[in-house]
Amino acid sequence: MKLSNILLASSLFYFRIPREKWAKRMKLLKTAGYNTIDVYFPWNYHETAPGIWDFSGNRDVYAFLELAKMHGLFVIARPGPYICSEWDGGGLPAWLAADGVSVRQDDEEFLKRIGTWYDHILPVLEPFQISRGGTVLCMQIENELDFFDCKSPVSYMEKLMSMAAGHRIDIPLFYCCGQNDLLRAGGLTPGLYTAFNVYSDSNSPGTEERALHLYSTVSDRNMPFLITETNREHSYLKRLLACGAKLLGPYNQTAGNTMEWYNGITNWGTRENPIALMAADYDFDSMIGSAGEVNDQFYESRLLSGLLNSFPTEFAESVPMKAEGMVIQSSQPVNAVIPLLHTTRGDFLELSNLGRKDTIHLQYHDFELTLLMASLETRLLPVNVVLSDKKRITLLYSSYEIGFVEEKEDRTTTAMYGYGDFIAVLDMDGEIKTVNGGYQDESFNLIVGSPKEIAVMPIPGLPDMKGKLEEQAEERVISHLSIADAVLPAIKFEKTPVQPMEKIPQYRGIGCYRFSVEKDGEFLFQEAADIITICRDGEQTDVIYGRGDSIFRQLQPGIYQIYTEIWGHSNFDDIRCKSLRMNSLKGIGKIVRINGREDISDNWLFDLDEQPVGEWYFFRHSNYNTIMGIDSYSRAVSPVRGVYSKWITVPDNADSLYLHFSRADCIIHVYVNGHLEADVLKDDPVVDISRYAKNDRIEVCLRTERKFSTDRVGNVTLIAGNAQTDCEYGMLPVETFKMPLQAVQTTYPIKLRKGKNYVMTLPLERKDGKEMKLFFQGKDIKLTIVNNHRVISRLVLPNGSFPDVRGGSRDTAYISEEWLGAEKPVIWCQTIGNEPELEEVKVCYYSPVCDA
Known about the structure:
The chain is mainly β and 852 residues long. The chain contains 12 helices and 56 strands. The strands form 11 sheets. Strands 31, 32, 33, 34, 35, 36, 40, 43, 45 and 46 form a 10-stranded antiparallel sheet that branches. Strands 1-2-5-6-7-8-9-10 form an 8-stranded parallel beta barrel.
């Protein structure tokens, strides 16, 4: 895999950007100087239900790739099968879990399902390969497998490669190391290139040492140093470039908006509650925002691109090394290792100020420089860089960086940028010349300015900018809105057992379980996820966020409708709670009326546990066993491994049986009649042992592992009950929400009634050529925005009982100008807390900074 220039790649996801804006985003990237786009292809976005495929409209991959080719952008194709991307299930269809398929393994059934996906996506990619005159440079097999417990990475990867070859994919294939674990990310599979994610704090002094280690790792295998994901700041990208990176892929440099129920959930929450809901606004402080607005990184990008375009082959063939003999005097931290990037046209010395703005003194061989550097600024300082072979001009050293070099027949122009005092020492056909500002003679022009001044200039190879970044946004408060009580769309119910939504089957959106309760009682909602709304006789009584755990509620007589909304399937695999497992399901697994509780915390037989954990366990009964409470044993060792055994009489007339642990501060393996039933999760300390409900009695063994003796199991309760068998289910057609005629206009703030639903419309004005965002301020409400029979955004405003919202702004909704046609967006507002209120709505219009 030989590259003729550095690949500067931005993620650009067609599935998060309206089709009408694809070309505009590509033009923005070209204006910023990017030459490559990185594209995931989500399997579940195209196979919307088993065997139902869609490559039309916003899913038209062929049209997207044609546009990329037309705009001269290389493409890095990433069709999965797993993509992550904070997308619903990481792109894996939800019915795989419903069917019990073992995902991301060398598993015959999983590979068969992948084969069907590849049969549809790879024939679209095949004609766009660079080897066919297209624009797709390379293709990723899988993604960040080193975060997942794959049992055999090599055999799994080899079979994916074989499937790709069967579809005439002959471009380089690679795998991505999410946490730089080569062996578990791809197993050094023969014929497969290795790429890395390289993230760290922007002020980390160890970035270069880590990057040089990775460069050495792939160089040993005669491979280029490819970085598929990393920080978005171009100062950080320069640090990686100086360490030999040939592909720089700042992740989500082009933001978007997640539509049509495809939000994911991930483990970016708190230690106490690891779940985070992924915002519809998919903007990680991206250079290009979801409405096409750009930030100051746009300037930095043009400058870096100007340098790379001036020495394309030289940078592609450059070799990094550690600079020797350097003396640095600084009150601020700098990078621990100073790389020198060697090219055939000269060298570039990388220095980063990792503290506040200050002066840094640098001495290297025969020159000294005093540099005024901004906070987190990185400079690639030129050392003996040949600016012109024809005119024999060499830049020996300078305090500023090169923005671009343009050589014409009669004149060489070099633009340099930076802060503080400028000095450049030039060898001009044998004459040493020191300059402290701009310089011009009959054949050479040196332009010096601030980063912004140079960035807005016409830069060779880049489209010109228009407009000013500080004048992009036009913001105003929306003074009023129309609001009415919502009438939920009619649901078509059918009889069904209580089971997860995916088994009914429903893979995204909102469903409803309906059943009747004849008398007061306590009920258990088992494996409840995600947003659970309980209604009795048409009145909303409770809204809960379920993490795939068990929810206990007292129910009174009435007709119950339990609405369950899938916020998203986990895009990551985390064992801390059930909803963060990649095979987790949504809705409700089981509804049980509880008939009895028994505290069984006391009088367990105890022994030290010295056997390995397996599927079976035999407790050695003896008259010498200690008998004690579940948390009574103390021993001055760590860890403390113990086993507790107890015979339990099973209550009569129960078909459902559970063990509930009130603390679960330690590892607890639950065995019943010698068989391992479950490991107790602290987030859901309820273990289902219903398959033993018809036994007269059972032996329960709890094998515990505690860091210290003081770690608690807590009270152990045996819960017995009967499953709800009389149930109906239906899907809520949210896309059909409409504004009723009796809507009224009102102004802010709007105090809403707890437990109610509303619909709203806003007086939005379309402005041709401008895109917009809405900003909502309020609390205890969930907003679902519907336009033209499609959900275009979902928001959860601050609410103490819900997980954090991450991955973008929780209060922001993108509105494309094309959506403001005859049907204006309708906002369904569901109250989810005690003090629901909509305080204000703002709209911001954005003007483009380049010709679309």
